[in-house]
Amino acid sequence: PAPEPALVPVVEPPKPEPKPKAKPTPKKVVQEVKPVDVPAPVQVEAATEPEPVEDDYAAENLPESFVEKYMDALAQVKYELSMARFQKNSFNPEHLKALIPEVLLPLLEDKSIFWKLQFIEHKEDYLYHHSIDVAILAGCIGEWMGCTPKRLESLMWGALLHDIGKTLVPLNIINKTGSLTAEEWNIAQLHAVRGYKYLRKNYDMPHEIHYCVLQHHERMDGSGYPLSLPGKKIDICGRIIAIADTYSAMTSLRSYGKRRTSYDAAATLQSEMFGKLDSQICLQFLGRLRQFFQGN
In 118-192, which ranges are E strands? Predict the structure, then answer.
């Protein structure tokens, strides 16, 4: 008989694990948002350059006594420099010298003189305004440096005359509002030499005045004109006038170009005082200028 087959144990298949029940998704709670009033859009006009309100305000509020003295001095300077251009034999520099004790020296004691000079409008007769302003600024510097009264008078007299050579340059160049051509610029630069020669030939005056006229565009690094003198050969009066002339030109209201603020002008002087301008005089000037604006 055939043998009986071996018994194979029956293995039950594993039961599948029950799937975990999905957690119920929490309901989102929506907060009620209260309506917010949204302002209507603001209509903005096209941007325009702001008007120089501070200039207008300051000019209108300059003390009448100062304006009167300044304008009287301006009329005298204008008359004399006009004589130098049109009737040279009638020009008398002594009349300008007389302005120093009568008008200019008292202004050096005015603690707000920087502010007042800044806001006197120079759009017309710029040459004459500039001559007065440079004389006052140079006088302040000279006084701070301890100049003797005689030397201070010569310095301020020279400052009044520092641009007299411009009366010997054609008006179409002096009054041009646009950029000068190379030829016109070369002619304009002659004003320093022409003014120096004119005064030295026709008038007996201290040598400091000649230096003010001849050297106020010279620079310490030799980059100036008309002689490209190095610093050691530039007279102290020429160095002082160079600083006063630069500051006045930058901060004056003129018919061409924009007036720069005193802060911008001070920054320019600071950048040029180690090379182009006398650093010691510049430091003296900037220090006093800083004291003035901190106090005002």
Answer: none
Smallest CA-to-CA distance from 190 within 205, 172, 169, 206 is with 169
Exposed (0-12), middle (13-18) or buried (19+): which is 163, by Cβ within 10 Å?
A: buried
Instruction: Identify the band that residue 118 occupies on the pLDDT scale cut at 50, 70 and 90.
Output: confident
Kindly report whether the peptide bond that precedes residue 226 is cis, defined as omega within 30 degrees of 0: yes
Report residue 49: phi and psi, to 5°.
Answer: -70, 130
Q: How far apart are CA 293 and CA 296, in angstroms?
A: 5
* Number of residues that make up the chain: 296
- The first and second tokens of residue 28, run together, are 């989102």
CA 234 to chain centre: 24
Q: Does the pLDDT at position 197 exceed 60? A: yes
Q: Residue 292: exposed, middle, or buried by beta-carbon count in 10 A (0-12, 13-18, 19+)? A: middle
pTM confidence score: 0.78
Neighbours of 179 (CB within 10 A): 8
- Tell which residue, 195, 113, 100, has the closest CA to residue 151: 100
- Cα of first residue to Cα of last residue in the chain, in angstroms, is 134
pLDDT, tens digit (0-9, with 9 covering 90-100), for 161-189: 999 999 999 999 988 888 899 999 999 99
Nearest Cα to Cα of residue 252 among 115, 60, 120, 75: 120
Residue given tokens 């004790």 in the structure block = 101
- Confirm if 250 and 266 have CB atoms less than 8 A apart: no
Nearest to 92 by CA among 238, 204, 215: 204
The pLDDT, as a whole number, for residue 204 is 94
